[in-house]
Write a structure and sequence with these properties.
The chain is mostly helical and about 190 residues long. The chain contains 10 helices and no strands. It starts with a helix and ends in an 8-residue tail after the last helix.
Length: about 190
């Protein structure tokens, strides 16, 4: 009986290591949402950033950039528990999702813009979300975001349409300012 118990416990231990490793390599939005609801956003962020120099948190941010609805929900739920560094990463990830899923991102902004912990506002999302990008990266992003926002139908929602127009205004202002300063170079 003791031998059987040792075998079962060893198997469970091994399985938990395999599952933990798989989770670190391939984050799952549903699992993370459930974890946030059980443990709270701050606890989940602490776990994500403690994994091998932020690798799991970065993987989650990469998934948020896809603009998929469940990953934008992860961003929304994590935001209230974020510190300055993790908040900035979440904001940039949501901003990078803008050209991929403009309506979903605008919906997230609409849900969180009046929440001080939400951190997702037009002024923070409708920007060039890059720090010292390679030449042309920011410009190509802004052009793509502009095209996607212009072609996104938000006529069914006054709030989303207003946010879309505000977002376009921000992007147009960034482009115009870059051209005035002589730093606009989308061809590179």
């Amino acid at each position: 009986m003791k031998l059987m118990l040792c075998i079962v416990l060893s198997s469970l231990f091994f399985l938990s290591i395999v599952v933990e490793k798989a989770d670190a390599e391939d984050p799952d939005a549903v699992r993370i949402i459930e974890e946030i609801r059980l443990k709270g956003p701050k606890s989940v962020i602490e776990r994500l950033v403690s994994c091998e120099k932020w690798t799991e948190f970065e993987a989650v941010c990469d998934m948020i950039e896809t603009g998929e609805k469940e990953w934008l929900e992860v961003a929304r739920l994590l935001a209230p528990g974020s510190d300055a560094a993790s908040a900035e990463s979440l904001v940039y990830s949501v901003a990078r999702a803008l050209p991929r899923s403009p309506r979903q991102v605008l919906s997230l902004v609409a849900e969180t813009e009046n929440d001080p912990a939400g951190r997702f506002t037009v002024d923070r999302i409708c920007i060039s979300p890059f720090i010292e990008p390679e030449p042309g990266v920011s410009e190509r992003y802004l052009i793509e975001a502009e095209k996607k926002l212009e072609s996104t139908d938000t006529s069914d929602s006054l709030r989303l349409n207003t946010l879309r127009l505000q977002c376009l205004d921000n992007i147009h202002a960034i482009i115009c300012n870059s051209k005035k300063r002589g730093i606009w170079n989308p061809k590179q």
